[in-house]
Design goal:
9 helices, mainly alpha, elongated, single chain, Tetracycline Repressor, domain 2
Amino acid sequence: MVAGRREQILATAAQMFAARGFHAVSVDELGDAVGVSGPALYRHFASKEAMLAEMLVDISERLLGEGRARIASAQSPRQALRTLVGWHIEFALGNPELITVQLRDWAALSPLARERVRKLQGRYVEVWVEALMAARPEIDEATARASVHAAFGLLNSTPHSARIDRATMHALLERMAMAALLSPGSD
């Protein structure tokens, strides 16, 4: 049950950090929200910063692991790209608070945690770059990387842009991302 309790604390922390910012949430407030005293949280995490680090490392590991798994079963390069797009949209629409915390509270991570998250995110980007280059062999690596980062900007805008029902938003984001990634543009 300890793992379940840790997950509950992290989910509550993500909601509170997303709503108010990492620095604006006290350990006592977080403890109250999960039904314990603030100091009792230290049985599960060394510090509030450790909660943030675990939260952001976990989402980076989940994105990378699931992204790799999904493209491994793809039947074509284009399908691999589409499955990455679909996975990221699924994650972003289902976890807007984690997207918000990642974008806003990154600087609150310790240098060691920042480096770990950065490495995981870099590997995730490379999965996308490889998939895009397989789907569009005519583009160079720098263009593929820039395209992937631009697509992430679109997909990670969901905490602010998801104003329609989830299925319609998913379809809209998928169409937009695939069009942007597969567009010949000026290359």
